[in-house]
Write a structure and sequence with these properties.
Blueprint (H helix, E strand, L loop, with lengths): L21 H7 L6 E4 L2 E4 L23 E2 L2 E2 L12 H16 L16 H14 L7 H10 L5 E2 L2 E10 L6 H16 L7 H9 L10 E5 L6 H7 L10 E2 L4 E3 L2 E11 L2 E2 L2 H31 L2 E2 L13
Antiparallel strand pairs: 1-2, 3-4, 3-12, 5-11, 6-7, 6-10, 8-10, 9-10
Length: 319
């Protein structure tokens, strides 16, 4: 009896979802000049000192330039050791300043961005809701979306898949990696290949934790894998392949995949009437996200931004 549990390795680093083992990661990290392997870890080798060398004090690290919105300095939250999401802070400060300019929030006298209260955030949310226009999708728009994306509305579809992942990691020669992956795929497509060849190559080459199970991901649905894999496996109007080995490499944000489909559950196609409200909600969310993006670009275009890169617009954009 075939397993019906949710498939994928669970790592989140290979396109299918338990952290990868050090052995799997080491396959994707090449040895670099000046580094030595010590107990499976790479340690930087320091050059030997020569006679006459003098000790030099390390230079003090340079302080990053302050990040400001219209002269107001952005400050990381108290207790944060490494706060990198400055864009979120910048957008929040832009909205606060817009609320102050509109008379919705009181002005502050300091030179640093104040921390917002829940009441402040409610005022800003109401301001944004009033400023952006989100049109309701028409019945025709919903139906056109359904006709173009019917594969998204199939209930219960699943594939039993196994794969070999050639992960793209920092320092990897992508061209050499692609050639290796292509060579492996061609070897699996040759006549007379032993039945266990895929599993043996997955154990030897794959950078996914499923390599210990011959690359077997189990039964997966369109929401259980990376969008690139879901699009290739489930979202095509005319599926280019059925059961068996996929005839070409599949590219994802994690690397290159050799895929084999070992089982298929067709699922049930929903009718337009059954998913009409779901489509309307989805299109409304997309429209709102677009309008909010344009609204923020307009605020950025009108502001003096220092120390952080933000894309702005000088004039209102057509929605």
């Amino acid at each position: 009896m075939q397993a019906t549990s949710k498939g994928g390795c669970g790592s989140g680093s290979c396109g299918c979802g338990a952290p990868a083992s050090s052995d799997q990661l080491s396959r994707a990290v090449p040895e670099q000049e000046g580094w030595a392997a010590v107990d499976s870890a790479q340690v930087k080798e320091e050059p030997a000192k020569r006679a006459g060398d003098t000790e030099q004090s390390p230079l003090p690290p340079s302080l990053p330039a302050p990040k400001k919105i219209n002269g107001i300095t952005l400050v990381a939250p108290e207790g944060a050791e490494a706060y990198t999401d400055w864009l979120e802070l910048a957008h929040t400060e832009l909205l606060r300043q817009e609320a102050v300019a509109s008379g919705l929030l009181p002005a502050t006298t300091g030179t640093t961005a104040p921390e917002l209260t829940d009441a402040d955030r409610s005022v800003i949310e109401a301001m944004v809701d009033a400023a952006i226009h989100t049109p309701e999708p028409t019945a025709q728009e919903c139906e056109r979306f359904f006709d173009a994306n019917k594969q998204q509305f199939v209930l219960g579809q699943a594939l039993h898949v196994r794969h070999i992942l050639f992960a793209v990691t920092p320092g990897v020669n992508v061209n050499a990696l692609a050639q290796r992956a292509e060579k492996t795929l061609l070897s699996l497509m040759a006549k007379g290949v032993p039945a266990d060849q895929f599993a043996r190559l997955a154990a030897e080459l794959s950078n996914c934790p499923t390599s210990t199970q011959g690359g077997d991901l189990g039964w997966i649905g369109p929401n259980d894998c990376a969008p690139e894999l879901a699009n290739e496996l489930f979202r095509q109007k005319q599926t280019p392949f059925g059961m068996g080995l996929h005839p070409r490499l599949i590219h994802s944000r994690f690397g290159l995949h050799i895929l084999e489909v070992m089982g298929r559950r067709e699922g049930q196609q929903k009718t337009f009437d059954e998913v009409r409200e779901r489509i309307a909600s989805q299109l409304t969310l997309q429209s709102r996200a677009k309008a909010l993006h344009q609204y923020m670009r307009l605020l950025v275009g009108q502001a003096q931004v220092e120390g952080i890169e933000m894309k702005g617009a000088d004039s209102p954009l057509v929605q």
